[in-house]
Amino acid sequence: DDAPLCGATSDYSSYLSLTGLTAGATYYIRVDGYSNLVGSFGIIAIDGSASFPSVPGQDCGFSNPVCNSTMSVSNPGYQGIGTGCDLPTSYCLSSGERGSVWYGFTTNAAGNINFDIVPNDWPGAPSTTSTDYDFSLFKMTTSSCAAILAGTNTPAACNYSSLGVTGVSPTGNAPAAYPGYNGSYEPQVACAAGDSWIIVIQNYSNS
């Protein structure tokens, strides 16, 4: 039924590990929705000695590039965790990886990193009701995705608030445009020219 856990997070994709199959034989897989649910799906089949192909944007080693000052993701956005579990439960995102997307970038000058993550369903101030997004920012200049998974790359910034609008700012409080969100913001992060970074953004409820 369900694929292996990623930390404390269930992956509701189905997973089959089959042995003793006959070369040249035809096998059938029947797919049905749990509790009459419907929707689209995909099937990936690999030889047992191979690895599942990475999912661009959803696996740490294949992060999306940050290529604009404003980037939008349409609804419903990213679901699940990609091919593998890339995030342990030892960071502030204590449930592990869930509804995640990874973005990578390199800073071209010394300064400070600041950003806002704004859910598409936030109706605007003064509301603090929206989808719950969380994030963790890692410096990768001398580190790796394996170090993140091993729990040895401490995040430069991380927030697990239940509030939806989140990010980092010069004061560590929410910018004036997002009143009521101080609890979901972290202080800005200093950077040098040529530093490499990766950020994982998570939709906690996979909504």
pLDDT average, as an integer?
90
Portion of residues in helices? Answer: under 10%
Question: Main β-sheet, in a few words?
Answer: 5 strands, mixed
Q: Helix segment count? A: 1
Structural class: mainly beta
Shape: globular
Estimate the strand proportion.
25-35%
Low-confidence segments: none
Q: If strands are numbered along the chain, what order do they take across the biggest sheet?
A: 3-4-12-7-8
Number of distinct beta strands: 12
- The arrangement of helices and strands along the chain is EEEEEEEHEEEEE
Radius of gyration: 19 Å
Distance between the termini: 21 Å
Protein architecture, described:
- The protein has one helix at residues 145-150, and strands at residues 2-6, 9-14, 64-65, 100-106, 111-113, 115-117, 133-139, 157-159, 166-169, 185-187, 189-191, 196-203.
- It is mainly β.
- The strands form 4 sheets. A 5-stranded mixed β-sheet has the order 3-4-12-7-8, with no helix packed on it. A 3-stranded mixed β-sheet has the order 6-9-10, with no helix packed on it.
In short, what is this structure?
With 207 residues, this protein is mostly beta strands. It has one helix at 145-150; strands at 2-6, 9-14, 64-65, 100-106, 111-113, 115-117, 133-139, 157-159, 166-169, 185-187, 189-191, 196-203.
Topology:
Layout: E1 2-6, E2 9-14, E3 64-65, E4 100-106, E5 111-113, E6 115-117, E7 133-139, H1 145-150, E8 157-159, E9 166-169, E10 185-187, E11 189-191, E12 196-203
Parallel strand pairs: 3-4, 9-10
Antiparallel strand pairs: 1-2, 4-12, 5-11, 6-9, 7-8, 7-12
Give short descriptive properties of this protein.
mainly beta; 5-stranded mixed β-sheet; 3-stranded mixed β-sheet; 12 strands
